[in-house]
Design brief:
Length: 74
């Protein structure tokens, strides 16, 4: 059984095993799309996107939100 951890943001390598055989996905207008399938202009647009914070820390200030979802494969 393989256990995956999905994180927000583009990752250079797998946080579990260190493999560089990874790919990014992005939600575009309601559906998910693999970034490596995009054309050059869409890839450039992705690099220029503004990243935001969507959570609050205990001190009341913003903190970076991180998605951690465990996916089990058999």
């Amino acid at each position: 059984m393989i256990k995956e951890v999905i994180r927000l943001g583009k990752q250079a390598k797998c946080p579990h095993c260190g493999s560089k055989n990874v790919y990014g996905i992005s939600r575009v207008v309601g559906y998910f799309s693999r970034i490596d399938n995009w054309n050059a202009s869409k890839t450039a647009e992705f690099k220029d996107r503004q990243k935001g914070s969507y959570g609050l820390s205990d001190s009341g200030g913003p903190e970076k939100a991180e998605l951690k979802k465990e996916v089990m494969h058999s």
